[in-house]
Specification:
about 90 residues; two-stranded antiparallel ribbon; single chain
Length: about 90
């Protein structure tokens, strides 16, 4: 958790309850960072072990995308997304 930078808030502001999307600007500099970590915080304490994902800055084009929405609630999605693998995965 050292040398953390917050994305999505201004300065020391926190993100609003229910935030589940933070967009990075095009051409955002990755610098030395290799992972994105997400901490959760409540009025009691900040999470000490975040969820982490490795940044993967690649592009791949797929075909035959299929999605059937199995969630019946408005403005919510649920189900599996399937696609054909790209021909070149190098």
């Amino acid at each position: 958790g050292g040398n953390r930078s917050q994305v999505g808030g201004l300065g020391n502001e926190t993100l609003f309850l229910g935030t589940n999307l933070v967009e990075l600007l095009p051409d955002e500099t990755l610098s030395i960072y290799e992972q994105v970590v997400v901490y959760t915080r409540s009025s009691l304490i900040e999470q000490t072990t975040p969820v982490a994902n490795i940044v993967n800055d690649t592009v791949a084009y797929v075909s035959n995308i299929s999605f059937t929405d199995l969630d019946f609630d408005p403005l919510e999605l649920g189900g599996n997304i399937t696609w054909a693998d790209p021909e070149d995965i190098s």
